[in-house]
Structures are given as structure tokens and as C-alpha cells.
Amino acid sequence: MSKKSEVRSQESEVRSQASDEAVVAQLKSLAPVNVSHDLAPEILARVKVLKVSHISRLTSHVSRFTYPLAAAAAVTLLLGGLWMMRVTPADPGQQAIAWLCHTQEPDGSWSTAHWGGDKHFEVALTGLSLLTIVESSQSSAKPSIDKAIAYLIRCQQKDGQFGESFSGAPYNHGISTLALAKAYETRKDEALRLALDRAVSAICSRQYADGGWGYHQEARPASNLSVTLWQLEALRIASAQSWPQVRPNLERGLRWMAGVASDDGSFGYQARGDTPGGASLTLTAMGAMSFLDSAHIGLVSPGRRQAIKARMQHLAASPGPDMDYYRRYFLASALKKMDEESARRGLVALRHDLLSRQDKHGTDTGSWKPDDRWGSAGGRIYATALASLSLR
Q: Cα 53 to the chain's mean position, in Å?
């Protein structure tokens, strides 16, 4: 080999090593995502061995010309395999949590501007996302949980309310309080406890004389099942922890809800038989979610309780062709509290239907398209959070 050829060969090898080092640096820079087994340390170790020993171990088998190509191909295959492992979590539930964590804003919120929905409910959607991530029990989601908690606490007003005052503010407040109370189950943080003290007090202070809750700023305030349910769910979790003083408020609210139940197992919006906009199925699933809980089983008669179960079994068997993530969430929650085989079959069918609708390709992999009646209010964040919660 001439002197000039040898110099060119050495230059080529230097460039190859620099390329290898760039790939290794790229591997090290990849952000962590939940996977069942992280291959990065093993791959980096193998690449290092190849780099150190390629002259002594490979020169006799591979020419100086072909080694850079072979090494690059090997590293490319390893990188591709690692990338697939890192962006494709082990199951659909993990994919949903990964998507939610990825779409969280730097300030800890989830943006309606980016993912559709009504700006007024951004606090509620952040609370719903937090609830979903907390319920997943994924340790790698802790940074997202911390940021969401901090954001909601910053959104709390002097009177304890989460978010600004407007007619639908009880949704923001009830859902956020519920999410923070669930987070408090595993992290006894003082700042979080103080925020919950004020939030729980705000719920109790706004309970109507009849025991229910309604929209803010109404000329003629009236309790309704939809608003009441979220306040009761928040009080239910809080009463089991550090706020036993709310149990009388919880019981009054449940008694009001029992008062809108009919003998046929259905629930009304503000009174028995009141189902505006054809919301009978959703309202009944909401009521069933509360009264199929063994702790509250005595608040409705055995006959009504059996009728509620029969309605849930029928709804699980025939949910209808239209998707309603809101209804499916309450239906799934109710079915999980039933021991009947039909309820278990209903959950399997519901899960299959939801999984068939989950996005499996592109940047929205793991999420759900907001194509139901509430999609314009909640956007993709709402659809993904409720679908994920329904799968638990």
C-alpha cells in the first residue's frame, strides 16, 4: 500500500470512529420512556467493546474498508431496536400514560389550545389527566405528577376554588379536588394537604340545602346529578383519609342522589324521570357508579338496586353505536363493582371496543380521538384520560 493510500485509509477510520461516537452520544441523549426492559446500557456497553477491540479482533476477518460499513449497520440496527422499545410501551395503558406525559405543558397543565376543547375547562382537564396518571401507579410518571400538582395549587383561589369562577366552575373544582385527593393517598405533602383543606371546605360550603350541588352563578340555583357526582367523588376519597369531618356532607349528597332514582333503576338529572337531551343512559351509569358501592348500598332499596344492576347489564350488552367516553367511564366504574358474570363480560367487550379506537400510529399513538358528543368541550385530552381510566 502506498503512503497516500495508507493516509486515506487512516482518515477514513478516524471518520468512522467519529461517526460511531456521534451515534453513541445520540443514544445517551434519548429521553426515558416506560418500557419493560431498558436495553440502552447493554447496547452502549456492546458498542464500546466493538470500538475498543475492533482492530485486534476483527481485522483478520473484516477488511479496513468493510468494517466501518458493518459497524454502522450493526449500530443502526441496535439503535432502531432501541427506539422501537422506547417509543412502544408494553401495553395500550402504558401508551396512553406515555402520551399524556409527553403532551403535558412545561407549566404542568394540559392545553386545550393544542388538543381541542374549551379553554374554560383546562383546569378540569389537567385534573383529569393527573387522576389518570396517578391511577396508573407508574413510578416513571412522578415528574408529570409533581408538575400537575404544582400547577393546580397555583390555580387555587383564596376561597379554595380551583380555577376562575364561571357557570361550569364546579367541574374544574370537583375533578381537581378528586385528583389531588388521590395523589395525597401516596404522598403526604404538607402543601398538598393545605390545598386540599381549602378545596374540601369549598365543596362543603357550596352544598345546597337539599344536599346536592349545581352550576355557579345561576339565577335559580338547582342541584343536578352531573355536578353533584364529581363533588361526591372528591368527598368520598377525602373522607377516607384526613378529612372524616366531611362524611355528613357526603351522606347528604348521596341521599339527594338516591332521591332522583326511579324504581326502574334509572336516574334523573334534577328529579326522577328528568333526562334532558336523551341523557338517561349516562345519568343512570353515574348513579350506578355511586350506589353499587358496598359502602352506600343501604341508601337505595334492594328492588331499586337490582333494577340498577339490570340496567347496567343491559347497557354493557348494548352500549349503542355512538361513542361516549363520559358514559363509558361511568359504565366501566359501575361494572367493576358488580360480581355478576355478565358484568365481567361487559367489561371485556367495553375494553375491546375502546382498544379498537385507540390511535396506533403517528404522533398520537396511545391516545383517543375526541369524536363523541363531548369532544368539543374536552378535546383529545378528555377522550384519552377517560378511555384510559375505563381500561383500569
A: 47
Give the per-residue pLDDT at 49: 38
The helix or strand, by DSSP H or E, that contains position 76, with its residue range, turns out to be helix 66-87
Sequence ranges of the domains in the chain: 3-87
Give the distance, in angstroms, between the CA of residue 101 and the centroid of all CA atoms in the same chain.
9
**Burial call 33-70: b when 16+ CB within 10 Å, e when fewer:** bbbeeeebeebeeebeebbeebeeebeeeeebeebbee
What is the rounded CA–CA span in Å between residue 75 and residue 46?
Answer: 10
Measured CA to CA, the distance from residue 133 to residue 314 in angstroms comes to 31
204-213 pLDDT tens trace: 999 999 999 9
26, three cell numbers: 445520540
Task: For residue 158, give the nearest of 195, 128, 127, 108 by alpha carbon.
Answer: 195
Nearest to 229 by CA among 205, 208, 254, 251: 254
The residues pairing with 267 across neighbouring beta strands, listed in sequence order, are: 261
Q: How far apart are CA 215 and CA 193, in angstroms?
A: 26
Higher pLDDT, 226 or 80: 226
- 242 burial via Cβ count (<10 Å: 0-12, 13-18, 19+): middle
Radius of gyration for the chain, computed over Cα atoms and rounded to the nearest angstrom: 27
Over the stretch 182-202, which tens digit does the pLDDT of each residue have?
A: 999 988 899 999 999 999 999
pLDDT for 234:
97
User: Any residues with CB less than 8 A from the CB of 241 and at least 6 apart, and which?
Assistant: 181, 184, 185
Coil, strand or helix: which one is 358?
A: strand
375 contact partners, CB below 8 Å, separation of at least 6: 116, 117, 369, 382, 383
Q: How many CA within 13 A on the CB side of residue 175?
A: 23
Cα(118)–Cα(125) distance, integer angstroms: 10
Pair 311, 284: CB distance under 8 Å: yes
Residue matched to cell numbers 367495553: 350
Class of residue 150 by CB neighbours under 10 A (exposed 0-12, middle 13-18, buried 19+): middle
